Structure formats: C-alpha cells, structure tokens
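Now read the record:
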Amino acid sequence: MSREAEPRAVKIDASSGGQGATERSRVGAADQLFAALDGQIISAHGESWELRIFGIYLKPDRSWLQFRLSGPEQIDGVAAVECREAEWVLQRIRGGLDRRVSGSPTLVC
C-alpha cells in the first residue's frame, strides 16, 4: 500500500505592507523553521511521535504552526509560538502532548 504524500505549505503574512527584503526574510525564516521541524521525532510519556508541518504563518509578535503528529495514534494540532527557534517550538509541542487528554484527536498548544 503506497502512502500519499503529506501536504506541505508555508504561509507568509504579507498584510503588514512589508515589501522586498522584509518579505524575503519572512520567507527565509519560515523555510528555515519548516526544515528544522518537519520530520522530527518527539517523545512524550514513553511514546514517539513524528512531527509533520503543514503550515507556518508568521507575524511579528507571534507565529502559528499547523501540524500533525503520527505515533500510537494520529493527532492534528496548532501551536501559537512567540519564539521561532526550533527547539523552543518542539518543547511547546511536547508540553501540549504532556497536557493532552488521552484519546483527543487534536492538540492546541
């Protein structure tokens, strides 16, 4: 059985009026964050989860990530993050897994 390719998207906020270098730096930041996070393995409660990033929406004060965790079950999630460092984002998602109600198909962190 072949596995369908996971959708991959990077969304950039252009509504702030930023042009040229500012917009390119946002694209670069989103691409870097995507590359650092997509495919990472997160461990929580003795279980391993593969992180797949579907979208990154960058704003000056907060960014949003849309993702899926595949492990003992499949969980779709959204994370609001103030920091764009990959390790910080992984910790945020791991914390969401720690607080998650067992069996819930979604995760908001």
